[in-house]
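User: Sequence in, structure out. Go.
Assistant: Echoing your sequence, followed by the structure tokens.
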Amino acid sequence: MARRPILSLSERKSLLALPDDELTLTRMAYFSEHDLALISAHRKPASRFGFAVLLCYLKNVGFAPDKKIPPSDALLKHIASRLKLAGDLWPAYLYGRDTTRREHLTELYRYLGVKAFTGKIQQDCITHLLSMATRTDKGILLAEELLVYLRQNNVLIPAIDVVERTCAEAMAGGDKIVFQTLNTPLTPAHRDALDRLLESSDNQSSRLIWLLQPPGKINGKNVLQHLDRLSSIEFLALPEGIDRTIHQNRLLKLTREGRKMSSRDLTRFSAARRHAILVCVLEEARATLTDEVIELHERMLNSLFSKAERTQAERLQQTGKLIQSKLRQYIDVGLALSEARDSSGDPWLAIENILPWPEFVASLEETRHLARKNNFDPLHIITKKYSILRKYAPRMLSALLLVVTPAAQPLADALAVIKDMYRKQSRKVPATAPLEFVPESWRKVVITPAGIDRQYYEFCALSELKGALRSGDIWVKGSRRYITTILADGINLGLTKMAEACPGSTKSSLENIQAWYIRDETYSAALAELVNAQGKRPLAAFWGDGTTSSSDGQNFRTSSSGRYAGQVNPKYGQEPGRQFYTHISDQYSSFYTCIISRVGDSTHVLDGLLYHESDLEIREHYTDTAGFTDHVFALMHLLGFAFCPRIRDLHDKKLFIKGKADQYPALQSLISTTSLNLKEIEIHWPEVLRLVTSIKQGTVTASLMLKKLASYPKQNGLAKALRKIGRIERTLFMLDWFRCTASADTGGAE
């Protein structure tokens, strides 16, 4: 069976490629006095030149150029200039006597202390790479580490095929170590339970497939089903922390592999590999289920509040004519009373001249009914849907292990009280229940003369829990805001219909290809290859140099069969769909795409600039008005990108300065009355630097941090400091745009 390549063609070329910057080439072409003496010992110019080239490569790169791997033309010019020789002597040396070249190599091996790459050294290399192979399966990273190891130990770099084969063996060894690490803590009972997950019948799919089902429609029943799945995984009682015994990269890779394969395919693997994959799938499923339960809860609350607002709006619309009639009636009554007062007339008679007294009393009662709070505030009708919340809330609070910050402790105490009420089946909220977390808008319905209203108390606590989870004041143990979506491949035809449409293809063969090769990282790698290839075409340079990009979102409606997988984004109407956010370079290559659904565009602007895998070096980025916030302005500057959003209603945006607006009379109308407080930036500057470093190194994604920073900025000093930095950057951008506009230059805003 042919070995699967672990390096792409471009990666193979890049491994042994020399840098092309002048400084590096000058350093490589430097020869010491001893080097020059050794070179001068050879008589012919071609011999001296060839010897110097071999010396330069062996000393700096670790291999000798030959007919298959020619030396860099730029380096040859530097060497020729250094030795004061002609730059075209290399072909004469290369195609001269082979004996001369072999003698030169032997002399240089002895002079530099270079060792040949032997079988024993290869085993040492594999042993050295095993540690890295347990952390990553990216062939290029292993190959780069191998070359570093060989150079450090003065070992001649072998042919690229040998390098790839060595890395492949290390990767296979890493797989075995990972499988063994995951299997060691498992008991026979664990292994039997894992195997039972794969059992299926003609009428029923396997238990594993049920565990990996998506949440479906937003309702209490589906929340309960997801909680059942979470309970089933907990019932397996896998060893605590088993997912942390291997590197996260490996965990995610095995998870993706297991999710792609059918239960039948998994049963064909060796027991060690099968159990390792199932452990990874279940641990990832536990986190995903937890996240999806939280997501369902958020969407459920959003749906309930939206329905309450619509009901309130419909009521108001239905009573609009009656309210207008009552207003006109009381205007008439008021005018009659005013006229009676001025003329010292009888006020009661004045009223009865407008309408009889019994009708006036009845009108007052009707008006009092219209003025009820529940006609104008949706909070007063939200409890009509209490039964929906009550259906799943007890189990959800029992299943989620909440970890709180001091700022959210009152809310956590309230949730503990609610859990205790569920457990004891109490009907009344204790008088000692915490109320500090209740916002002002809720107090009028939560706190009543008769005490604390239970339904409103629960609604308020669970609504505040949603906000606290988003802001990071509360998080759930085992949760990871990680939601992967299977992209509709190509034309979304499906494997069955694709097999029917393609002669010579079967559904089984396509499933095999999909299981082994169609993954998020392979899509990313393939996209990077396409972008890099397009960027090398001469035509691409006519459009741009690949340093500028723009991004925007696109919404695609889901089909009727997939409507529950989609989400409603009010910006695009009430039809469910999926929103894709795409980054495009100035060479018109789409180098990054992600699914954002209900999240704002600005959250994902930085992800595309930081986490694309192509060779593009983006320095300047453009977005529409949806792609900018003050937080994005700040992070763009701190991460080294020039940010040029098209800002809608620019005339309404304010400039922020340190000092008073009267210092700049021409701009006084545009300057905010709130001056900049740089003290907050100074206080939180270490945290800002820590955040930027974490984002740049990939410890956390930019989109995740932007979501959290935008959640509850009033409670977060870091968010406020970052917003002030963003306001400074936005002010500078706006001033630059004003300057460009004044000089008839089209700027980056509208």
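User: And one key feature?
Assistant: Residues 481-493, 744-750 have pLDDT under 50 and may be disordered.
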